[in-house]
């Protein structure tokens, strides 16, 4: 996003070029062309009111399109994470109320059983889980159920259902 003091002139931003340069394909995307266009213009620093003027609609409509687009992007990310979790050889559920200090042993045990090597020490693994879980972890307490998956190459992914 462009800083407020660096607002581009709306006429200087070409949404079609941005979408083409990013390889947008409406037939393959979870976004509609309008959603992609609004996101592209917003990411270039245009205000919703400027986008509304350009598209011949209201600011409220642009706000709604943007919110739907961001929701679709988040759902697509979750879908990819879910698909990766399904194919991961290691899947560990960390229940709410678990002490974060107990998580590495559970992950290591599951990795040993699956023959997968994790190249992280216990403190590194706790930090990775804590960082990737966001507000699902507070201090040492896992507040919301988490899924930790480990890919065959040792990559760790943390998901919140």
Automatic annotation (TrEMBL):
Ranges for region Disordered? 1-20
List, for all copies, the residue spans of the domain called RNA polymerase sigma-70 region.
30-72
Q: Which SUPFAM superfamilies match?
A: DNA-binding protein Tfx
- The signal peptide, as residue positions, is none
Keywords noted in UniProt: DNA-binding, Transcription, Transcription regulation
InterPro entries per the UniProt record, alphabetical: RNA_pol_sigma70_r4, Tfx_C, Tfx_DNA-bd_arc, Tfx_DNA-bd_euryarc, Tfx_DNA-bd_sf_arc
User: Which protein, by its recorded name, is this?
Assistant: RNA polymerase subunit sigma-70
Organism encoding this protein: Halorubrum ezzemoulense
